[in-house]
Amino acid sequence: MSQITHTIGSRLKSRRLEKGLTQEALAELAHLHPSYIGQVERGERNATIQSIEKICIALDYPMESLFSHIIANQKDPDYPGLCYDLIIEQSTDNQKLIFQIVSQISKKK
User: With 90 as the cut, is the pLDDT of residue 73 above it?
Assistant: First the structure.
């Protein structure tokens, strides 16, 4: 599958874990099959927009947040998007620490 499919799956999984839900619990909330949730999270399934909407509603995850910082079909890596994906999976404490580090680096320009 495409990098976008993997990115979306990873973001959904991170949000699910943040909410403390199992794939089965999320599937029940979203009215989808648990194996489908797993396939989407692993980037193995190209989910429909309707299914993504159901998952986002169940996770209280705005779709605009899910799709933010995704840039497709570019030659150079999307470093801001890659950083976002790494940071969003971290705890709030780690996110604050990363922010402080990046702030210090940007001051050295």
Answer: no
Q: How many whole angstroms separate alpha carbon 66 and alpha carbon 5?
A: 11
Phi, psi at residue 69, to the nearest 5°? Answer: 65, 30
User: And the tokens for 74?
Assistant: 């570019």
Q: What is the rounded distance in angstroms from the CA atom of residue 48 to the CA atom of residue 50?
A: 5
Measured CA to CA, the distance from residue 44 to residue 29 in angstroms comes to 21
Nearest to 85 by CA among 68, 97, 101: 68
Q: Are 68 and 91 in contact (CB under 8 A)?
A: no
Give residue 72's pLDDT.
58
Q: Which residues contact 95 (CB under 8 A, 6 or more apart)?
A: 87
C-alpha span between 88 and 98 (Å, rounded): 11
What's the mean pLDDT in 91-101?
A: 91
CA atoms within 13 A on the CB side of 84: 15
